[in-house]
Design brief:
369 residues, alpha/beta
Length: 369
């Protein structure tokens, strides 16, 4: 997971497609929806994107004409374009590639496929950019190291202030029975990540993180619950299907809240970790989770880790609607969920550290002695 927030312009004259596309993408990217080619060029005047998702069949100016115009302008010519189309004939695809399109995605969207195609194109662009800029970056870092350290320190202080204020607001409003949940889940995740590093599992992804920022970001994973009424959040019994649907909206509300923080803070690494965790910690390995229904390794590693920590703590903690499960029962539920609810490789690691989870739960108040 990159530490920079990528920008995508989504161009489609169908407003339903625009809404669906933004819903799929906003957890991972900064999205600029445009209902027409002319609106897209207005956006380009003020914000250059990392990628454009472009509908082919539009009344004012079709996708092929848009690509020609983009490629004729030095300022826009290197922006990768992925066509969105319901066409599947070879001649249409060949025409698009000849004009300079990077890829095609069929409509209606499949969220995992759309996300993977975007990820692949951005990775190709980033590799080329890194090769061109590496020498210049090295020179700049050498010349400005002291200033960069000061700038980064100032950014982190600014970020911490923003986060502390947000968390303080949450603590003021939330229920009494989940006390210690944030502290415990942070500790669970550190245990899991340390073991993954020790066993050299998923280390390519983990090495891209600042672990301290990742662990700090965990405290915002349920920030969206601030929008859920106490009558549902603290209901002493099973939620009705309608109430559960309302409860599920805390994910999108949390994503919106993090995006609001992001717009007012310079430091992005922590916020991006938080955004991914908030948006994906209720996704499930078999695709049965929410809000998008991502499956397997299409779910970011942060979300897959958070799912185990969050569920374990919910199981061993007393809540308004349930008594606490014994540690052994909670472990059994998680182990049975391997390959269904949870990444089976992460569950194997959990088995090795489950006693450490129990110690944290006892020490921070979930499991009563």
């Amino acid at each position: 997971m990159s530490d920079s927030r990528r920008r995508i312009i989504l161009v489609d004259d169908n407003l339903s497609n625009l809404d669906q596309g933004r819903s799929i993408l906003k957890t991972f990217y900064e999205v600029f929806p445009a209902p027409s080619a002319s609106k897209m060029f207005e956006i380009l005047e003020n914000a250059l994107p990392d990628l454009i998702l472009l509908d082919i069949e539009m009344p004012e100016m079709n996708g092929y004409e848009v690509v020609k115009k983009l490629k004729s302008n030095d300022r826009y010519s290197n922006i990768p374009v992925i066509f969105l189309t319901s066409k599947n004939d070879v001649s249409s695809e060949r025409q698009g590639f000849e004009l300079g399109a990077a890829d095609y995605v069929s409509k209606p969207f499949s969220p995992p496929i759309l996300l993977k195609r975007i990820e692949n194109q951005l990775a190709l662009v980033q590799r080329a950019k890194d090769l061109m800029e590496s020498r210049e970056k090295l020179r700049e870092y050498s010349e400005n190291l002291e200033e960069l350290v000061k700038q980064k320190t100032d950014e982190v202080i600014n970020l911490q202030g923003t986060v502390i204020a947000t968390v303080a607001d949450l603590v003021e409003f939330r229920d009494k029975l989940t006390g210690g949940h944030i502290s415990r889940t942070q500790r669970y995740l550190k245990i899991l990540v340390d073991k993954l590093i020790e066993k050299n599992i998923y280390t390519d992804e983990i090495n891209e993180w600042d672990i301290n920022l990742f662990l700090m970001s965990v405290q915002l994973h349920d920030v969206g619950k601030i929008t859920i009424s106490d009558s549902i959040l603290n209901k002493p019994g099973k939620l009705t299907p309608e109430e559960f649907e309302i409860m599920k909206t805390h994910v999108s509300a949390g994503v919106d809240a993090i995006e609001g923080i992001l717009s007012n803070a310079k430091e992005h690494a922590f916020l991006n970790h938080a955004l991914v965790i908030v948006g994906t910690h209720h996704e499930r390995w078999d695709g049965s989770g929410y809000p998008i229904g991502l499956k397997g390794k299409n779910i970011p590693l942060e979300g897959r880790l958070m799912a185990i920590a969050d569920v374990y703590d919910a199981l061993v903690s007393e809540r308004s609607y349930k008594k606490a499960f014994p540690h052994e029962t909670a472990c059994g539920i998680i182990e049975k969920g391997a390959g269904k609810d949870f990444d089976p490789e992460l569950v194997n690691v959990f088995r090795e550290v489950e006693d450490e989870f129990a110690e944290v739960a006892k020490r921070v108040g979930a499991i009563k002695n």
